[in-house]
Write a structure and sequence with these properties.
20% helix, Jelly Rolls, alpha+beta, four-stranded antiparallel beta sheet
Length: 192
């Protein structure tokens, strides 16, 4: 009997302990700028915008970000004239100088706190690149790809509790309650 009780207690603790554990999830989304959807060559001055889909079960608060990065591969980036920004957050920095060869530039999204406030489930990561050729208006920048990597602990959101209303007693109910309590007090007094 004692062994059965210990086994039941152990199983209960195992279930309770695993229910609160978070599950690590690694997610990646790639945007290929060489497809017809995007014009990938920038020249002169302008802005280039794109989005990365984010897994639909990612939400902040409730999920914890372990790491998040953005890897942009481009050709002919030079002189810091190509600033990458997260829309509604701010600048991440410039693409690395590279000449004519495709070179990836990695940006840390966790360090600057892109996911530090709130993130609605299903919300996409919206980015832009501001390009200014400056004194070389014939210079071009060729965007090749953008890869978004996210590693996070998936924690179930607490259930949304429906609001409960406590009915306000009407005067007649209060009168009956008062009369009943008075009757009980009188009965007890006469019983002694």
């Amino acid at each position: 009997m004692k062994k059965l009780g210990l086994a039941v207690l152990g199983a209960f603790l195992l279930v309770c302990g695993s229910a609160g554990m978070a599950m690590a999830i690694q997610y990646s989304n790639t945007v290929d700028f060489t497809t017809s959807e995007y014009g990938n060559v920038l020249s002169g001055t302008g802005e280039f915008a794109w989005s990365h889909e984010v897994t639909s079960d990612f939400q902040i608060p409730f999920d914890n970000v372990n790491s998040a990065s953005l890897i942009i591969t481009a050709r002919r980036a030079a002189d810091g004239n190509d600033i990458v920004s997260v829309i509604d957050f701010g600048d991440l920095g410039a693409l690395g100088d590279n000449g004519n060869s495709p070179v990836p530039t990695t940006f840390d999204l966790k360090g600057p706190g892109v996911f530090s406030l709130t993130w609605t489930s299903g919300q996409s990561l919206n980015l832009s690149l501001t390009y200014d050729a400056g004194n070389s208006p014939n210079s071009t920048l060729t965007m090749i790809s953008s890869v978004f990597n996210l590693d996070y602990n998936n924690i179930d959101a607490p259930p949304v509790l429906e609001s409960t209303t406590i009915p306000t007693p009407e005067p007649g109910t209060l009168l009956l309650l008062g009369a009943g309590l008075t009757g009980l007090a009188a009965f007890r007094r006469f019983k002694k």
